[in-house]
Amino acid sequence: MYRTHTCGELRPAHIGQTVTLAGWVQRSRDLGGMTFVDLRDRYGITQLAFNMEVHPELCEQARKLGREFVIQVTGTVVERTSKNYQMDTGEIEVVASSLTILNASLTPPFTIEEQTDGGDELRMKYRYLDLRRPTLKNNLILRHKMALETRNYLSSLGFMEIETPFLIKSTPEGARDFVVPSRIHHGEFYALPQSPQTFKQLLMVSGYDRYFQIVRCFRDEDLRADRQPEFTQIDCEMSFVERQDILQTFEGLTKHLFKTIKGIDIGEVPRMSYDDAMKYYGSDKPDIRFDMKFVELTDIVKGKGFSVFDTAELVVGICAKGAAGYTRKQLDELTEFVKKPQIGAKGLVYVRYNADGTLKSSVDKFYTEEHLKDWAHHFGAVPGDLMLILAGEKDKTRKQLNELRLEMGNQLGLRKKDEYKLLWVLDFPMFEYNEEDGRYYAMHHPFTSPKKEDIPLMDSNLALVKANAYDLVLNGSEIAGGSIRIHDKKLQAKVFEVLGFTRDEAVEKFGFLMNAFEYGAPPHGGIAFGFDRLCALMGGSDSIRDFIAFPKNNAGRDTMIDSPSSIDPLQLKELGIYFNK
Amino acid sequence: MYRTHTCGELRPAHIGQTVTLAGWVQRSRDLGGMTFVDLRDRYGITQLAFNMEVHPELCEQARKLGREFVIQVTGTVVERTSKNYQMDTGEIEVVASSLTILNASLTPPFTIEEQTDGGDELRMKYRYLDLRRPTLKNNLILRHKMALETRNYLSSLGFMEIETPFLIKSTPEGARDFVVPSRIHHGEFYALPQSPQTFKQLLMVSGYDRYFQIVRCFRDEDLRADRQPEFTQIDCEMSFVERQDILQTFEGLTKHLFKTIKGIDIGEVPRMSYDDAMKYYGSDKPDIRFDMKFVELTDIVKGKGFSVFDTAELVVGICAKGAAGYTRKQLDELTEFVKKPQIGAKGLVYVRYNADGTLKSSVDKFYTEEHLKDWAHHFGAVPGDLMLILAGEKDKTRKQLNELRLEMGNQLGLRKKDEYKLLWVLDFPMFEYNEEDGRYYAMHHPFTSPKKEDIPLMDSNLALVKANAYDLVLNGSEIAGGSIRIHDKKLQAKVFEVLGFTRDEAVEKFGFLMNAFEYGAPPHGGIAFGFDRLCALMGGSDSIRDFIAFPKNNAGRDTMIDSPSSIDPLQLKELGIYFNK
User: Which residue among A158, A179, A343, B245 is least crowded, i.e. fewest CB within 10 A of its CB?
Assistant: First the structure.
């Protein structure tokens, strides 16, 4: 060992002891007679003192230490004259009696501090230096703890972690696979798993009735901000269970994580149907840290000559509590916001419920104060509130109002980073109609079970069939999703038929799983948590990248290791692969 | 929930309770008035009783149940008249009052029993059925426990599990990489990691001084029996440590696993130098469950007219205790054994130390009984022992004798499956000379540190330089290996020079790691355990395949999912890849 203690460990109780520390030079201050060096490691920072009078040579050496030099120092723990109670080790310092430079360092390209001067790109290229910053360190510590707590909690419930293969088979359904060419069988490929879905269902067939795995998954999608080509899931499956059992088990896991990691008791997680989520929030992942539910006005606003409302399928609004003071300029900005092409509303109607009880709207030409009072009544608005109303085609308008609601939540400070609100969203639609090829697709996947009571609807109205599928939403982000699977052959055949393929085609697409289902598949269902996002949200951040040790950039590149990159021509030859130039 | 209890749970204390069980039909026995069904799940087997008198319809239904049907049964727990104390649930049975067939099953292609009638190939194809067998189930439970114990133990020591990327960069050194073509950047590839070696060293540069990860690794090698293209490692690295710290920490982990998983106290793990391992066992992974050390006779056997010994660089043998009774036929078979092409010895000399004190050898023509007595003295042989001697070129002869020693260990029953002997092998050679291209290669990798005292030898005799590298050996199998890494730039430059490349070439080959080392790399070292093998050995098996849920066969194929396989032409087009037909 190069040290007797870490840099986060020494306290007044150690005063008088001779200790050896090793770490990185965070900064050094030369005060003439004394030189002070802040020595950093994973555990903290300890102040080292070099005395020019007592050890002039040592002190000279200390003065020459650059930032991020790796050093080993032996000395005596003494009480500090000016204590720093902000630091764990702030009551002591180590008066050095020997110093060894274990390694020099070039000057780092950005400061290794909580707040750094390095830009995103630079920090990605020097990720190994960025990882020294306390923010990223604390994120990785959080992630480590989350994984460990998850494993111990699920194991205590009898779940087994079972590793599934990474070199699997490409499936034509779903997102795009990353593929791995076979050297032995030219022209053939393995695929990297988008999730262990089929393997966990096979494990259910095998009788491993409580399975989980914290596992890497891969999707070769065009990347958006905050999407990674490789990401981590807490993947789970259970047999002999109904929906209620799964919700209860994984609500338990979530509670446990909040309790042990954040010290927060999240209580019972509320449940909401997909239909209600869309109706009241315009989103299948509502942020319920704040209320501001949608209020529909369609029936009461028509026939007063305002053609926008008269012709609208839906007139719907939100009430922003206490926002009546919004200026004309602010309201114009909100109008601009909803008219942005990404959102696409045609305009915004507002009604100010002034503090004096009067009402002022952008549609005063068409509606009397009496009308507006009626609206306010519907909204539950009181003087001081601001009502914001959109109109148009139902689904689109809801989505637009969702964006406006979230924006108002941001503007009014209602989306607090340290507040955590969970929500189960249940009963998703089973099928999605694709206009392009005029057929229905499974919204989740074709092994998802429809709700029992909706099975008869499969013969009459597919759009109304609900799946036994569920999402867990945290602060407006989906953190987990899953479903009860089909285990009944007849029902499975029916779903395949509805999706437009024969059993033979199904076997071709889902081959081995279909075969396995012939040998006694138990009733089962599962869920998968997006672990990167869960860590980010629990760390109070929106960026999953800050919770992954070595992430890729938005172009799917690791700029630190410069990957992807060209490979040796010999490797290509061995794989039998050619590229058209 | 489809059940109130599992099939392994009911005991006499439950007698009189109404319970619901769900599981698979293991077997059913029709005894006329009664039908008995053994119901199986992950937790055990419970006997169900159907009474023809009381519930004739139910009993009829039960009689028709096929093997591996999935059923749900409600009934009353009663005391068995003929108890089976071999089974955890053998004192009770459940008298059924209702039966639901949850799923039928085709007749499985082999029996789902401890001993099955299915061949290897068939069981691989139907892996999901093979996984129902108790052997494989117990293996996966062991594996789950091992992983959990490892994580908890290392975490309790302050180790952080940090996930490293799977889509990385191909490196020309080492084994062959699996590569992943980039769709966005045609002609460029990611590579799957052979190990997280460079990333864990980067994490040390980042200050995460205690890292571990249970992680999948990939090697595109021509497969041998019991090698998998994807395998799992317990990968570990520490900073500010010397060899002793690493050995102690991971000896601790190993002890902990043996204690918690097997209930075995393995005590202090002995240490042996590589040179001694080769000298006394002819192997860098000696099986020390039995002694039978090599004894060198070179100096005392020459000059007696036996040209085989006279011209040999090394004459060396083993003493098989109590094996003097070996017949002529058995000795001939041993001779055949060492003459097999894989072993390649020219012949075998034996000396029987008969029970009556006389000695009989295959070289009586050249050596008197007095000579043989002298040999016996060297061997520490006593009447009843058998000495077996090989001669030839030093390294080859040692390897041959290693094979013979292991064979004798097997024949004499000295390699017990339930005995566990660990050994650290230390001080491996730093460099290996390659005859083909007349240069030295790093035996471990070029970041491995030479032993401090051997650094001067790097200017005089490379073959003598020892690396600060170590292996942990269990019952003759390497279960872990690692080294102290170089953190000193000058020493690193020296090693690169010796390996015949300039710093620029080194940067080209090991780019980002070399760059990272410019910014304050701490002294560090690590180790990696082969997790599949560790599980197999602790499970008392030689076959790692039985400890992997979904392994590949010796051709790198997963015959269950039929992978690798051809992919959609559209996928190839998107990747810009062509194959020459």
Answer: A158
The pair of three-digit structure tokens given for residue B104, joined into one six-digit string:
């039928």
> Is pLDDT at A173 greater than 80 in this prediction?
no
Nearest to B406 by CA among B259, B294, B304: B294
Using alpha carbons, list the distances in angstroms from residue A101 to A2, A50, A70, A174, B215. Answer: 12, 15, 6, 55, 34
Concatenated DSSP letters for A113-138? SSS----HHHHHHTHHHHTTSHHHHH
Which secondary structure element, helix H or strand E, spans residue B509, and what is its range? helix B503-516
> Is B116 part of a structural domain of the chain?
no
* CA gyration radius, chain A: 30
**Chain A partners within 8 Å of B208 (Cβ):** 42, 131, 137, 140
CATH number where B31 lies = 2.40.50.140
Which residues of chain B make contact with A240, given a CB cutoff of 8 A?
Answer: 1-3, 22
Chain position carrying tokens 């029916």: A494
> B538 CB contacts (<8 Å, ≥6 apart)?
B142, B146, B257, B258, B261, B262, B420
Interior angle at CA B485, CA A141 and CA B475, nearest 5? 90
Question: Span A557-577, mean pLDDT?
Answer: 89
Determine how many CB atoms are found less than 10 A away from the CB of residue B153: 19
CA distance B218 to B231: 6
Q: Domain containing A150: what range?
A: 136-272+422-548
Residues A384 and A509 in one domain: no
Give the mean pLDDT of A523-535: 98
Please state, in angstroms and rounded to a whole number, the distance separating the CA atoms of residues B217 and B168. Answer: 12
ipTM of the complex: 0.95
Q: CA B501 to CA B466: how far, in whole Å?
A: 20
Question: What is the rounded distance in angstroms from the CA atom of residue B172 to the CA atom of residue A25?
Answer: 35
Check if A122 contacts B (Cβ < 8 Å): no
Assign A441 a pLDDT band (cuts: 50, 70, 90). Answer: confident
**Co-location of B347 and B246 in the same domain:** no
pTM of this structure: 0.95
- Binary contact (B70, A220; C-beta < 8 A): no
Confidence check: pLDDT of A373 > 70: yes
